[in-house]
Amino acid sequence: MKPFLVISICLACLLPAAAQNWPQFRGPGATGVVEGRATAATWNAEKSLNTRWKTAIPGLGHSSPVVWGNKVFVTTAVTSAAKDETRYGLFGDVAPVKDDPKHTWKVYALDKETGKILWEQIAYEGLPKVKRHPKSTHSDSTPVTDGKYLVVLFGSHGLYAYDLNGKLLWKQDIGMLDSGWFYDADYQWEHGSSPVIYRDLVIIQADVQKDSYIAAYNLKTGKLAWKTPREEISSWGTPTVYEGKTRAELIANGSKAIRGYDPLTGKELWHLSPNSEITTPTPFVALDLIFVTSGYAPIQPIYAIRPGANGDISLKDGKESNESIAWSKQRGGPYMPTPVVYGDLLYTCSNQGVLTAYNARTGEKVYQERVGGKGAPFTASPVASDGKLFLSSEDGDVFVVKTGPKYELLATNPVGEVVMATPAISDGLVIVRGINHVFAFGETAAPKAKM
Question: Of all residues in the chain, what percent carry a pLDDT higher than 90?
């Protein structure tokens, strides 16, 4: 072998593999899926089994962790409230919390390998401008990054951009984002939709109690690029941009209609109704289909939409498909968790933990099982990697289910605290945010036998 070839091979072996990024809510393209590294099937945080690290984060935040390179980013809202009115589980109360004193909104960066806090920044301090639902927080929106900019949305308390070392680059006051119950404006529930990045734009969906809109801001400066009014009531889903074969489409879930926009201009391309009165799941694309779901009365639809549509694509006369809709169902859409497509199957998880698998191309039901064989509340969305589904319950268990046409529970993994946020997956680590800590779970080397 020639000397220069030997040197080149050796240098290649020394170069680190590219990190697996999870840049936004539900990861790349909001799909909830990454591949490339083996993930652990079992862990136990309380017994430190396959627990790489555990880092305490003060305050309260249901925003999900995001990952770029060797950094994990999370947000939180810290307060010294005398009484914590936050509640978890399956209940239907609509009144917001009463005790809402001064808060400090913060951004944290953690080392992905060790969990060490690399930096923290205060974005805003003051009294909350809107109240929150007892199951919500004042830090529900997940950050987004493109590797250069980290953009954080704290609802009515502003939009912020940092570099990955924590330097504030710009901030934008976007006014009041008052999302709440459509029957009574006094019932404020806080903002939940997360920002997304497309090219040099940051896009936010602001469906609120009055004057809803979707808007884009310049990623470098924070200046408004475009703003499109929406005839919408409050919603909490994150928009998704899909770069198709002929054009890009910005898809936004909404109660009055699901809509597609041109992400560069904000011009509406198509719309689809009917939909649920409350929408939370995020649209995503898999198998060249746009999946949009919702699970609140009067209907709980699942739509599989073909990209490239124009105008009103609503179904007529009780039909389940048309030129723009590959298939649909009027029942079965989840209320809180966004579904995931892995392989050829679409998996939905209800708030009560009922997992349903469909053929993602046709809508044919493949199976339906209760996760773990018992009832539990679910808010976090399922994510998938390495032939496994990870489903996080509010009770603090992460259920691992084998992907495929037959339900097979691989493990029930205790985290040790309530889990509301959707996990991130990066380089074989499953990064889980509980209400008090961020955890990284992954295969750890077995202890050496004593001689």
Answer: 85
For residues 383 and 421, the answer to whether their CB atoms sit within 8 Å is: no
Characterize 179-202 residue by residue with b for buried, 16 or more Cβ atoms within 10 angstroms of its Cβ, and e for exposed: bbbeeeeebbbbbbbbbbbbeebb
Distances (CA, A) of 2 to 6, 7, 13, 15: 6, 9, 17, 21
Angle at 157 between CA 87 and CA 433, to 5 degrees: 45
Report yes or no: 252 and 259 within 8 Å, Cβ to Cβ: yes
Residue 369 in tokens: 């099982």
pLDDT per residue over 340-361, tens digit each? 999 999 999 999 999 999 999 9
What kind and span of H or E run contains 53? strand 51-56
Residue entry with tokens 């393209």: 29
Return the amino acid letter for 318: G
Question: Half-sphere exposure of residue 281, counting CA atoms within 13 Å on the CB side?
Answer: 36
Question: By mean pLDDT, which of 110-114, 121-125, 375-379, 382-386 is the weakest?
Answer: 375-379
Quickly state the pLDDT bin for 445 (edges 50, 70, 90).
low
**CA distances to 172, 304, 320 from 317, in Å:** 46, 18, 9
Residue 114: other Cβ atoms inside 10 A = 13
Sequential DSSP letters for 194-258: PPEEETTEEEEEE--SSS-EEEEEETTT--EEEEEE-------PPPEEEE-SS-EEEEE--SS-E
d(CA 213, CA 178): 12
Contacts of 296 (CB under 8 A, 6+ apart): 276, 277, 278, 279, 335
Per DSSP, 135 falls in state: T
Contact 390, 430 (CB under 8 A): yes
The pLDDT, as a whole number, for residue 77 is: 96
Ramachandran category for residue 295: left, alpha or beta (phi over 0 → left; psi -120 to 50 → alpha): alpha
Tokens of 432: 């889980």
Whether residue 86 has pLDDT greater than 90: no
Residue 139 CB partners (closer than 8 Å, separation 6+): 59, 60, 61, 62, 63, 75, 76, 77, 105, 154
- Residues 35, 39, 41: CA angle, nearest 5 degrees: 135
- How much is the mean pLDDT over the chain? 93
CB under 8 Å to 213, separation ≥6 — which residues?
206, 227, 228, 229, 230
pLDDT for residue 15 is more than 70: no
Position 8 pLDDT exceeds 80:
no
